Amino acid sequence: MDSLVRSVSSYPAITILDPGGYAGAVSSSDTFAMYLFTNGAEKIFGGPEALDAALGLDKTPYDTILGLNITDIVSTPSLPEEKDEIEGIIGGDENGSLPQAPEKADAEKFYSDIEKALPFSVAEEKEKEVLFSDMYVPSAANGHALSEAEKESISYEDYTERHKSLMSLFDEDPTALRVPVGAGGLPVLMAEILRSVSEGGSLEDVLWEQIDGYGQTVSSDNADLFWIDTESGRVLGAGRFGRTVADGEWKSLFDDDDAVLKAADDLESFIRYAVFPIAGDDPERVKEFLQHLMNKQAYADYARFILDLDPDADINGVMELIKANLTAAGIMSGALGGEKEPDNGNTLTPEKELAELLESAETRSDSENL
Predict the structure, then answer these.
(1) Which terminus of the chain, N or C, has fewer Cβ atoms within 10 Å?
(2) Which of 43 and 179 is assigned the larger pLDDT?
(3) pTM as predicted
């Protein structure tokens, strides 16, 4: 090998092209040997004999290069031809087409469309959250929330396992009904609760109607879940809709957990004043508070529904569903900010129906206080 090194070192530099088209020069034994290793001697000189002649040697002084037989190196297959198009992409079709990317939501336009169709100011409604702070009832579900310190240290695997364990724990509670609430469906459920109590029905009646509406598909795959004690109206547990997130962004699920816990607080607060009034409640303030709890669902955090990266998710359909539910609950107009259809005073619009239900709740609260 020493004779080869000496011969190569004394031989003039050889200009070569690597497979990517980069021009280089062989001027050291290491570079030359590596080039032979990757490309084969035949592709430079035409074979071992031509290589001997190029180096001025009578006899090849080596049998191997970098531990490989020179015959094997020379017989390496030719490099594939370079092509501009990309072929054989994983997940692509036979033409090399990429799979379609998941549908992306225009969240800013989504909230803007809703706000344009509201009969109230979002900014002013948010101020009422402070005004009614003394009436909010924190749900029992908050007792299972992760602390900020736990959020910093927990792994994805432990978080997933913890989430599953909590869902199983809530399901084992014999006092609670597992109630599904889909995208934008909370104010609709609130309106149904008002309707049920105004007609003499019970909380359990309306919750079973809600459950039956989902048939056999009651899971976090298609809705948020709330575990509710029908005797007390307490929301004992809450589970978010299970969306798909991008790799490395799983901690955004913490925001989903927080959003569902806020919804649980709203729901428990609503049930407390709509279903379980007590002496000392101010009927007029109760009416305003119930309206506020429904109104605030117009600007709730819906990221878990509209930012789902599941390739099968119909994001535009989900956004339209949320708007339809807000309209059905009487919170916003279906015109999305456009001119409303003329009202002859006899049409029972969702807004009017909601007003009547709230009036009924106020009257009921008055009678409870007598």
Answers:
(1) C
(2) 179
(3) 0.67
